[in-house]
What we know:
Elements: H1 11-22, E1 39-44, E2 54-62, E3 67-71, H2 82-90, E4 94-99, H3 113-127, E5 132-136, H4 138-148, E6 156-159, H5 165-175, H6 180-194, H7 203-208, E7 214-219, H8 227-236, E8 241-245, H9 257-267
Parallel strand pairs: 3-4, 3-5, 5-6, 6-7, 7-8
Antiparallel strand pairs: 1-2, 2-4
Helix pairs in contact: 1-6, 2-9, 3-4, 5-6
Amino acid sequence: MPHATATPIDEATIARVADRFLSPRRAPAKPWPAAGAPATLAVPAPAGWPDGAEVALVCHRLGEGPPVLLVHGWQSQAADLLGAARALAAAGLSVWAPDLPAHGHSGGQRLSIPLAAQALHAVQRLAGPFTAVVGHSYGAAALVHALAGGLAAARAALLAPPTHYGIHARHAAQAAGLDAAATERLLQRLQALTGEAPDAIDMRRQAAALRLPALLLHADDDPVVPAHATRRVAEAWPGARWRPLQGLGHFRLLDDPGVLAEVAQFARGA
């Protein structure tokens, strides 16, 4: 009996998988308690980006003192990091907390790590060099990509970061039932849309070239992002401090008083 021939996966299917990979499920925008209007910035997008040449970025503020950049994760928003923002402000720091494109109060329908990094550079053009940058999950990955691209900061605290963009794109391909050839076409399409190859966004490789002090925190029971990959990043990052956590999952660490105090102390340079 002859073997059945697999049906080739068409470009429309590849396009749909790429679009899903770049399209977060947007939650209703939450209020930010600080007085005063947030800053609204225009962030340039890659050529051919589906949401247009620019994306409107809303950045919230809290506190007074040296500037700190605080970045939320995928399908989250700045208001979800209010515990961290308040801890940083109480430590005498001025918090700049953007809603990344396609999140919270910001415009757009899609987000990539390169576009998120561009958004963080746009905030820096307004705030000046940061005394510290703090990111959770996808926001931490965006911070490292921005640092590798010249974002100026004295130190970086990363909480539960995903460490390899290409691996996550492959997970999306596998979930969609793409074979190896179609997966490569997906990666090529993502590169065309975002302006960068997903496999080039590798935090362990980027970390080896960074020289600013870093604090990496990750819980051993994180069901979203494995902690062992973050540990390998810490080992590659010269002078990084690795802080394994127990029992705080992927999100509970954001409200843990001990974690928040440690991050605020580190951000102050203590």
